[in-house]
Design a protein that fits this description.
Layout lengths: L16 E3 L2 E3 L3 E3 L17 H7 L5 E8 L16 H16 L4 E6 L17 E2 L8 E4 L3 E4 L4 E2 L5 H17 L4 E5 L5 H6 L14 H4 L1 H14 L4 E5 L13 H12 L6 E5 L14 H5 L5 E5 L4 H10 L4 E4 L1 H5 L3 H7 L34 H5 L3
Parallel strand pairs: 3-4, 3-14, 4-5, 5-10, 6-9, 10-11, 11-12, 12-13, 13-14
Antiparallel strand pairs: 1-2, 7-8
Helix pairs in contact: 1-2, 3-6
The structure holds 2-Phenylacrylic acid.
Protein name: N-ethylmaleimide reductase
Enzyme class: oxidoreductase
GO molecular function, one term: FMN binding
Length: 382
């Protein structure tokens, strides 16, 4: 089984594309980026609309990981999409992006065991597939980076409520004006933690064989597709990443099964982190083409891509879309810069990544000081 490779022009990466119902002005995607700048009620913060609107020339913006419920929070100041105020806040963001001609979906997550008692109601333990603490840290306001808490295993009777939370948050996202939703199925958060035998030691219908470990992700994806339409839904996976202390004995068999289970839903896209997130792309042998061959929607790749790698991936047909994370922090006009092969801005210090205000968020310079992101900026330079 191989994905039919298409013949594409050398400029295809800068030309319009479609992923399900999502219309993209080009094939360059802003990856979801956690910036920890939400307001006290976990609505997007005061600079969020400007930040995303500055980046509206991306073919698609995937807004930062956003909680489906209060229980889903695992870090300080990450936004939610489950209250009226949060939906109103996101409306300002989606309107600002749409006004600039952009397309924007939101990444929805439940952090699962990558959380801390201080984010949970009454200081309770966070939840995971099993009561195994992740060897990773989170950021707690006032305390800085701290070890995540030991989770409690979700009771079987709680699982329908988790699925419902995802479905409801998807409906809320559409109400907020998003063009669609990406499910965060990566990096050791709840859905990924259920998938893997290193983190899921359950003995019920959601643990044990691959079919059972994949059940939660597939049921959540189905509920979300029912809520908003599969053609507006994407899923992110990170098959061999150890982010969030994620590990599995047989990732190839696991993810082949996961993609075979997702494909019949008719999703808009799959978003795959290749290798170690933010690190070695070849950390472990893995046949990504075996996954893409099992999927009929748009195939989005991520992790350490540069201009030439993105062009090669798209022109060869190995990928339909390429997402960029950190380059989009530093370059609001990344698409124009890549299109013109112009130099990229350097990132400001790490202290501006997670938390803070406008500095390091909305104050990166553009090539053209009057930059207004439009499709014609890009096509004019072809
Ligand atoms: C960096 C810091 C906090 C969260 C992920 C949402 O790993 C994140 C994240 C990244 O997907």
């Amino acid at each position: 089984m191989t994905r039919p490779h298409q013949t594409r022009s050398a400029r295809a990466v800068f030309e319009p594309a479609q992923a399900g119902a999502l219309k993209l002005a080009n094939r360059i995607v802003m990856a979801p980026l956690t910036r920890n700048r939400a307001a006290e009620d976990l609505s997007p913060g005061p600079f969020a609309a400007e930040y995303y609107a500055q980046r509206a020339s991306a073919g698609l913006i995937i807004a930062e990981a956003t909680q489906v419920s209060a229980q889903a929070q695992g870090y300080a100041n990450t936004p939610g999409c489950y209250t009226d105020a949060q939906v109103q806040g996101w409306k300002k963001v989606t309107e600002a992006v749409h006004e600039k001609g952009g397309t924007i979906v939101v990444q929805l997550w439940h952090t699962g065991r990558v959380s801390h008692t201080s984010f949970q109601k009454d200081g309770q333990a966070p939840v995971g597939p099993s009561a195994i603490r992740a060897r990773t840290k989170t950021f707690v306001a006032g305390e800085g980076f701290v070890d995540v808490s030991t989770p409690r295993a979700l009771d079987l009777r709680e699982i329908p409520g988790i699925i419902e939370d995802f479905g409801n948050a998807c409906s809320r996202a559409i109400e907020a004006g998003f063009d669609g939703v990406e499910l965060h199925g990566a990096h050791g958060y709840l859905l990924d933690a259920f998938l893997r035998d290193g983190t899921n030691h359950r003995t019920d219908a959601y643990g044990g064989p691959i079919e059972n470990r994949a059940r939660l992700l597939l049921e959540v994806a189905r509920a979300c597709a029912d809520a908003i339409g599969a053609e507006r839904l994407g899923v992110r996976l990170s098959p061999v990443s150890t982010a969030g202390d994620s590990h599995d004995s047989h990732p190839q068999a696991l993810f082949n099964h996961v993609v075979e289970g997702l494909n019949p839903l008719g999703l808009a896209y799959l978003h795959v982190v290749e290798g170690e997130t933010g690190g070695d792309r070849d950390s472990m042998a893995f046949d990504y083409e075996a996954l893409s061959a099992r999927f009929d929607g748009a195939w989005m790749v991520n992790n350490g891509y540069d201009r030439q790698m993105a062009i090669d991936a798209v022109v060869s047909g190995r990928a339909d879309l390429v997402s960029f994370g950190r380059p989009f922090i530093a370059n609001p006009d990344l698409v124009e810069r890549l299109s013109q092969n112009a130099p990229l801005n350097k990132l400001m210090g790490q202290e501006t990544f997670y938390g803070g205000g406008a500095h390091g968020y909305t104050d990166y310079p553009t090539l053209n000081p009057d930059h207004v992101a439009t499709r014609s900026d890009v096509t004019a330079s072809v």
